[in-house]
Amino acid sequence: MQGTAGSLARSLERKALILTVVLGCQVLAAMFFALDVAGDIAEAGLGWHLSIELGATLALAAGVVVGAIHVRSLIERARQDQALLAAARGAMGALIRARFAEWHLTAAEADVALFAIKGLDVAEIAGLRGSAQGTVRAQLTRIYAKAGTTSQTGLIALFMDELIDPATALEGRGDHG
Which residues form the HTH luxR-type domain (predicted)? Predict the structure, then answer.
């Protein structure tokens, strides 16, 4: 979740920056052509050729306006995505803390459970915690028992169920793993 939404927001920001630079170039071009057409009309009057140039200049100016609206929309969408991501991170963190408290996990068990939810295997968790793999396995067994599941997949599923649809989360319906 974090990587996808965060990268989406960053991608939108990059696109908005690129479009802003292009838009700036279009503004300069539109100003140049507008001044050029105005000067030509002042010298020679409005003829067929200058009418076409004037139309092209007005089309460029309209493109600049549409581009500006699009850039503004992209920037707003990026901001909304970042706000939603922050809210989702906070909600997920609150959900995890609430379940860990409900299951009465010790601090060490909570640490191991969080690594397990993130998808790390026993060896990786042991390495990060500076513990023996047997210790981590024993902690995971206690965590699974307290959570009412028998596996890492089941533990992850407990949280996924609530994220997907809290109303249909599998509460007290047996093992998830």
Answer: 102-159
